[in-house]
Amino acid sequence: MSHPLDRSLIAAFAELVTANGPAPVADLGSGPGYVAARLHGLGVPVFGVDVSPAMVNLAREAHPTLRFHVGTMTSLDLPDATLGGILALYSTIHVPDTHLPAAFAEFHRTLTPGAPVLLAFQTGPEPGGLHLTERFGHEIDLQYYWRTPAQVTALLAEAGLELTATVTREPEEGGKRPRGFVLARKPA
Predict the structure, then answer these.
(1) Which of 50, 75, 72 is nearest to 60 (CA)?
(2) Which of 37, 42, 91, 113 places its Cα 20 to 30 Å from the Cα of 140?
(3) Angle 100-110/149-158 helices, nearest 10 degrees?
(4) pTM of the shown model
């Protein structure tokens, strides 16, 4: 998170989490763990979840004092009402439209009352996507799903989560897509 707006939104999220109580935050799609480490540095109890075992290993190596495990946001291996917040930065973009309602239902199920959710994703004026079969000289099979903030907030509302704020940041120099940020919460 190199952009000042991105960092400020993470700091605001951390403040909301700590004001709501001591329950831990799940960084879903935590990748190499740098955002979980940032939250930890802000005093937030946090752990990371990623679908990729390779990413979990990288995160564990880079941040050995933090907990990371393999899992999926559509079926969290957590009891009901145990999370003080959920952060999903650029990870819902890999979840197909048909599976996103299940992920947001899991968010609602696992959050404590009043707990916030912060999502970040590439967006644009209309939905779309991209399928990559090669990256950095390696064969891959990676799908991206572009959604508008209105689509994301509607799906969160269907899952019982209340909208707090939306922010759209235009692409940085050399960037191609705007960034959407949605902050929501489970009703208290």
Answers:
(1) 50
(2) 37
(3) 50
(4) 0.92
Contacts of residue 42, Cβ cutoff 8 Å, sequence gap at least 6: 10, 11, 14
Percent of the chain predicted with pLDDT > 70? 93
DSSP assigned state of 73: T
> Treating both helix axes as pointing N-terminal to C-terminal, what angle do 34-41 and 53-62 enclose, rounded to 10 degrees?
40
Distances (CA, A) of 68 to 24, 79, 125: 13, 17, 35
Q: Which residue's structure tokens are 């996507």?
A: 129
Cα separation, 6 vs 49, whole angstroms: 20
**Letter for the amino acid at 79?**
P
Q: Is the pLDDT of residue 126 over 80?
A: no
